[in-house]
Amino acid sequence: MARAGTGTNQEAVRRHNLGTVLRYVHRTGSTSRASLTSQMALNRSTIGGLAATLEDLGLVRRSTPVASRAGAGRPSAGLEVVSRRAYVLAIDVGVDRVVVGRVGLGCDVEVRARVNLPPEPAPEHVAETIVGLVAAVRADASPESTLVGVGISVPGVVREADGMVVFAPNLGWHEVPFAALVRERLGLTVDHVIANDADLGARAEHVRGAGVAVDHLVYVSGDVGVGAGVITDGRPLGGAGGFAGEIGHMSFAPNGLRCHCGSRGCWETQVGAVAIARAIGAPADVVPTLDAVLDDFDGPPESLHEIAHHVGHGLANVINMLNPQVVVLGGYLASLHRLVEPEILAAVRSGVMSAAGGQVLVTRPTLGADTVLVGAAEAAFESLLADPAGVLSR
Predict the structure, then answer these.
(1) Among 1, 123, 144, 393, which residue's CB has the most CB atoms within a 10 Å radius?
(2) 10 Å Cβ neighbour count for 7?
(3) How much is the average pLDDT of 153-167?
């Protein structure tokens, strides 16, 4: 006689394994059953059964057999993701715009729509704008494609447990239940996930971008302000309340300018978009689109060299503290890096401990402008990847 609960445990194990297989194919796009057997340490018949279930669900399909690396033996049956079987809505709220993407399984951004926002927009206005963008990107979705989640990025401090935007200074938001606002207006029954933009940028670059092969990564976001998403030992670093990564507010020049957070001399007052616009003599109204302004420069103006030193010095502090393998500079910091990379790296080298500095790569996002949008999509896919059959049967 089987022990009580054995069947339930076996079902849980199978559900976990099914999700693990789908997660692997979702991240790689295509693979072979032999590779899955090796990765998951399961026998071939078990992998075959899991693959067959995912095929029945329409999430994967057979592809051209894949030869072994050694080149010997019969090629292994291939599997590839079916992008249009399931999709999510990825929502990237910026200081000056909101972008909504329809993203298929495998994180294929099928279509996107964008609307510019006024300064310090009301949360309700942003939520209503999202409703219109969602309607636009869903208009031509295949009737066989199932919506499985909504992921939302916000440039601020987010309490992910209840979707509260605690503080988004560049939007002018304080204690805004933004996930609830969006959920109420969209009227969708799927999971809604909300997170800080830098945290989602780190997730995307770790899974699909500059940090695919590393376990320790810092993504530094430049979207008017400065924040960071941190991956350590392959996992996101959230902190006790989920608010880790506010590196823009580390003390940099104690007697410096007053920061909007209330402190004086935060790093953001030296390298934020407002400081850079001031340095290059740009008007205040270009601050939200500073990346485009910097992209128009063929070479750096003299005034950016001091900014580059401040960026590198601050990064050295971050590297000394977190010891990442890769630092990815996003937003306007990516545009700045293109112009003054040697100066930034020189300042990093002068401030970082030799042991940590010898391991780190400072680079720009591999995913480009889609980094945060892809991160929001990855977060929205999480429920499907955890329980494929359960989510599709809802």
Answers:
(1) 123
(2) 10
(3) 91
Helix, strand and coil in the chain, % to nearest 5: 45, 25, 30
Cα 221 to Cα 198: distance, rounded to the nearest angstrom? 5
Q: Please work out, in degrees rounded to the nearest 5, the angle formed at the alpha carbon of residue 8 by the alpha carbons of 11 and 14.
A: 15
The beta strand positions in the chain, using DSSP E, are 30-32, 60-66, 76-81, 86-93, 97-104, 108-116, 146-154, 157-159, 164-168, 173-176, 192-196, 217-223, 225-232, 235-236, 326-329, 361-363
**Residue 31: HSE in the Cβ half-sphere, 13 Å Cα cutoff:** 22
**Residue in 87, 65, 97 with CA at minimum distance from that of residue 78:** 65
CA atoms within 13 A on the CB side of 115: 17
Question: Which residue matches tokens 């018949």?
Answer: 45
β-partners of residue 235 are 232
This prediction's pTM: 0.91
pLDDT digits (tens, 9 = 90+) for 1-54: 444 454 568 888 889 999 999 999 999 888 888 888 888 888 888 888 998 999
Q: Which residues contact 393 (CB under 8 A, 6 or more apart)?
A: none
Residues 6 or more apart in contact with residue 358 via CB below 8 angstroms: none
DSSP characters over 320-338: HHH--SEEEE-THHHHHHH
Q: pLDDT of 240-249, one tens digit each?
A: 878 889 999 9
In the structure encoding, which two tokens stand for residue 142, read together?
């295949």
> How far, CA to CA in Å, does 145 sit from each of 88, 164, 190, 252, 303?
10, 30, 14, 50, 51
Q: Report the distance separating Cα 293 and Cα 259, nearest Å.
A: 23
Q: How many CB atoms lie within 10 A of CB 17?
A: 17
Distance CA 113, CA 394 (A): 28
Q: Do 33 and 55 touch, CB atoms closer than 8 A?
A: no
Question: What are the residues facing 222 on neighbouring strands?
Answer: 226
In angstroms, the CA 190 to CA 193 distance is 10
- Residues in Cβ contact with 240 at an 8 Å cutoff, skipping those fewer than 6 apart: none
